[in-house]
Write a structure and sequence with these properties.
mainly beta, 26 strands, two-stranded antiparallel ribbon, 442 residues, 24-stranded antiparallel barrel, 1 helix
Length: 442
């Protein structure tokens, strides 16, 4: 609680300390009418208000185009409670740089190869980091992760080789962790191609010594073809950030990319000490008739990225685990009417009688109205709990079909929207929903 109060005070002072501080007040008011039935005018409904406010701001100090410090953060009011949102404070001096950030804010990942010691970029609570350059020789970084973890890194470049040393101390458990790791990577010319090489080794100090090693390489063999391979091993008493103790993993992959299609193949073989080994193999292919959307975003539903494409796109993938079939997935997305109607389909089979298929549409008749219909079908095997230990659990097949229609309409020339949702679920757990709401942002 004290920490939240301190950070809140810093935020308020940052807002008020400069006339040039960028402060914004935003929020929204919603009024929602909802009923869990399609029987309009005969079944009960409820009206629900909603109110959210967010105060966010940023401030910085610059002299002669040199940034001395910067701050960004926010406070939100939700359900009558004030909460501190994402925040980040950066301090920049001739001799060091320092950051404090938290509540979901991201800075940057820091670690040695293969993550033997790694400080993640995202802070769920509060994090702090100090970076000190040592002349032009190296950079020392100290990362603090409460309540009981410290990571230190030393990075340098020596004659074309990037070398690093890391130390992890974590005393949150009964047996404190002490891990030392080192890494090196470089790029060498091999004929007409460049080969990227990386290696790392780490030791867990203690009564039982543990260690881990990793080696990897990747190269563009020809312009469209990239090959990569790696091997990692962690002993029984390894306690670093990545790699699993008692496992050796051999991994490889290939990616062939042209403007119209991309083909990938990846595989890994895991050797487990005193246990069963395992393997995973996957193949994938994507075809696009336009370069408007990147391969990774062709079927991305977040923010309707898939519906920004101006030509059809198709994808397929298959996975095998322990040399047995695991799942296969097929995707397709295409505009139907230019700048007006898009449709996306997906089918996934995971073995047995487990199958699901969905179709999603986006319709924009004019700029103020957006309609999103969707249908999803799921066929699944459900194992029921046996009445007694002697009985075999029964396996039943269930089907669920969900039909959903969502629409939003912008009122006037503002961002105020009138939203509608109608959903009907057919199956063992039927469900109905009608919801109409108005959202007024400010």
């Amino acid at each position: 609680m004290k920490r939240v109060l301190v950070i809140t005070l810093v935020l308020v002072m940052a807002f008020a300390s400069s006339a040039m501080a960028a402060v914004s007040f935003s929020g929204k008011f919603t009024a929602t009418a909802q009923m869990d039935s399609f029987r309009v005018f005969t079944e009960d409904y409820k009206l629900t208000p909603g109110f959210e406010v967010t105060i966010s701001g940023s401030n910085k100090d610059e002299t002669d185009d040199v940034l001395n410090w910067e701050f960004s953060g926010g406070i939100s009011l939700t359900d009558s409670k004030f909460e501190l949102g994402k925040y980040k404070l950066g301090l920049y001096d001739d001799y060091f740089s320092a950051w404090a950030w938290g509540n979901g804010q991201e800075l940057s990942d820091k670690g040695v190869n293969f993550g033997l010691v790694k400080a993640a970029k995202k802070a769920t609570d509060m994090r702090a980091r100090l970076e000190v350059p040592v002349m032009d020789l190296a950079t020392v970084t100290i990362d603090l992760t409460p309540p009981a973890a410290v990571r230190a890194f030393v990075d340098a470049e020596i004659e074309g080789f990037n070398v690093g040393l890391a130390y992890l101390r974590d005393w949150s458990e009964t047996d404190a962790k002490n891990v030392i790791a080192a890494d090196v990577d470089t790029t060498i010319a091999a004929g007409d191609m460049d080969v990227n090489l990386e290696a790392a080794a780490g030791v867990t100090l203690g009564e039982d010594l543990g260690f881990a090693v990793g080696f990897g390489a990747d190269a563009d063999v020809i312009e469209p073809l990239n090959l990569e391979a790696s091997v990692t091993h962690a002993s029984e008493h390894w306690a670093g950030d990545s790699l699993t103790a008692k496992e050796t993993v051999l991994a490889g992959g290939a990616t062939y990319t042209e403007s119209a299609f991309q083909v990938t193949a990846n595989g890994s073989y895991t050797i487990v000490q005193d246990d069963d080994n395992s393997n995973e193999i996957s193949f994938g292919a994507k075809y696009r008739m336009s370069e408007t959307v990147a391969y990774a975003d062709l079927f991305k539903e977040d923010k309707d990225v898939w519906a920004t494409n101006d030509a059809p796109a198709f994808g397929a993938s298959v996975e095998f685990v322990d040399l047995g079939f695991d799942n296969v997935q097929v995707d397709a997305a295409s505009p139907v009417v230019a700048d007006m109607v898009w449709v996306k389909g997906q089918a996934k089979y995971t073995g047995g009688k487990n199958f699901e298929a969905s179709v999603l549409g986006k319709i924009v008749p004019f700029s103020k109205l957006t309609i999103k219909p969707s249908v999803k079908f799921v066929l699944a095997e459900v194992e029921e709990v046996a009445a007694t230990e002697e009985e075999e659990p029964a396996v039943e097949t269930t089907t669920t079909t969900t039909i959903n229609l969502a629409a939003s309409y912008k009122i006037g020339a503002s961002d105020t929207t009138l939203n509608f949702q109608g959903k009907k679920v057919f199956g063992d757990a039927p469900e109905s929903l009608l919801k109409l709401s108005i959202e007024v942002p400010f």
